[in-house]
């Protein structure tokens, strides 16, 4: 059982009338996690509750009291050790997928499970938790991984001797690909997402995940001593006591991993060595921590019987539990942000969103939108700047009232727009809607508001190119030539008389939301900042696929003039080129990390190249060179 469960049992034992907010303060965790742990401890029969009016009292069962009495001293001793090293953010993972299973004609990780595969599910969990640099060690049917396009974005390392080697040989082959602490997972493991989350945030850099004995007959038993890994074996007769079963998911520091590899390559004469036992050898010199999770739903696919059990029993249970866990997480965000009780939350519904997760929530009789940022956005979005800019937009009445914004996590709560109608590229072309959208843009651009940052496309291009290099993304053919032309326009553009104004900078049609007949809002200020207002005009024209006539109409409505100055036409076209070039780099980055955007990136790249050949650009370049 994890340390926070001990703390919670101890707090309840001292005061049965604590509310969840007070429990969170005592245990130094979020209300959402308290809510989840209480649910878990209740299911495990460690506590029970009684409701008195709006208040709930919690009590330890006899099982909870016995557990607290027998384990509290050992737990306190472990607490001193587990907080000695800081948490290291994990960005890499190794998946061991070289082994063969006699019951299957394919690698275990490629076995189907609910419309996906076990390996794809685990990769999705890793990506959801910020890990996109993934090494897959293959062996048996290595071509099967190469044929699946979704795995082509990850680094595949082959163990050609998989028939005659153990898992340590496979892990050692990944050494050159690993540069920092990483998560290690076996390809045949089905596990709750919360286990990955807990392991990644565990305060020890080296930590194995264990669970209660499964009774599968092939368990790797674990014994813990003084709070750290002491013994691993499949022979139960070797143990004074068994503390759990090794699952096949671990967090390893680069230093311990390197020690394991060196020990294996220099001093080991047994090619069949498995990594668990090499880790045990290293643990004689290094403290290897453990995380034992309560009521964990998991399984492994070693045989047809295991696979049938997972499909028919384990996975349905896991799906229900993960849905429940997500619900508890969402409620935890709301309780913490709005300082409300669980009973105050009446309804939660998914509410659109592609990059982020959005939810429509009903608290008391008031409706809100909760936004939980998608994974990976922290590299491209400054949440502190977004908070300032969102607040300014709210104060101007351009966006709805901002209720809560956590600049560390990016979690945001805003008022729900009533009678909401989200625009799309087709409706955005209607003249009556253009009058609304251009009016709100004028209000934004012509204001005296100073946003927290400047959106400089040339700085963004440099930043994104660095990310592209880090992700080992491959630029499109002709990239350098197009970039040279884009940079040649930079001098002309920066010589123009451009006054920077507050801008949204992400004017897809869906960010305009109509309320009733005459009111419209502009939402989602993640990319906002001081910029050329023609960036917004260009962005909306591109995203809505305006024809030249529709773009002309939009500009005349925006300017309240029938004639569009030549320089504004030039600036709109130049900003279109800059945007297409910038977002094609963004696509290269995302696809290098495993996403698939089809032809989106190449379409934008080719459009930038075509616009660079536009007569307006040619004339402007010619005049500049004169």
From TrEMBL:
<dbReference type="InterPro" id="IPR017190">
    <property type="entry name" value="Bifunc_CCT/choline_kinase"/>
</dbReference>
<feature type="domain" description="MobA-like NTP transferase">
    <location>
        <begin position="93"/>
        <end position="215"/>
    </location>
</feature>
<dbReference type="InterPro" id="IPR025877">
    <property type="entry name" value="MobA-like_NTP_Trfase"/>
</dbReference>
<dbReference type="InterPro" id="IPR036388">
    <property type="entry name" value="WH-like_DNA-bd_sf"/>
</dbReference>
<dbReference type="Pfam" id="PF01633">
    <property type="entry name" value="Choline_kinase"/>
</dbReference>
<protein>
    <submittedName>
        <fullName>Thiamine kinase-like enzyme/choline kinase/predicted transcriptional regulator</fullName>
    </submittedName>
</protein>
<dbReference type="Pfam" id="PF12804">
    <property type="entry name" value="NTP_transf_3"/>
</dbReference>
<dbReference type="InterPro" id="IPR029044">
    <property type="entry name" value="Nucleotide-diphossugar_trans"/>
</dbReference>
<dbReference type="InterPro" id="IPR011009">
    <property type="entry name" value="Kinase-like_dom_sf"/>
</dbReference>
<dbReference type="InterPro" id="IPR036390">
    <property type="entry name" value="WH_DNA-bd_sf"/>
</dbReference>
